[in-house]
Amino acid sequence: MTKLVLFLAANPNPITLTVTPETCADLAPRLTQIVRNGHTQPIPGPDGREYVVNFSNVVVAHFE
Asked: pLDDT over 90 for what percent of the chain?
């Protein structure tokens, strides 16, 4: 599994979401644009749950 690591403006501790390789492949090319534009984006988790991330609060995001 791949991890999406999010650093929020108001929180010094990162938030880590586990995502499937397919989700990573889908989001990775667009991640810069999503963070830059502050989009709200649904992120599917590996267990079928869906996370909704408001990227307007994200300062840094990357995949591990």
From this structure: 92
Q: Domain containing 25: what range?
A: 2-63
CATH number at residue 36: 2.30.30
Q: Is 4 exposed, middle or buried (0-12, 13-18, 19+ CB in 10 A)?
A: buried
Q: What's the number of domains the chain is made of?
A: 1
Asked if residue 25 lies in contact with residue 9, where contact means CB atoms within 8 angstroms, the answer is no
Q: Which residues of 54-63 are buried (b: 16+ CB within 10 A; e: fewer)?
A: ebeebeebee
Query: Residue 45 and residue 60: Cα distance in Å, rounded?
Result: 20
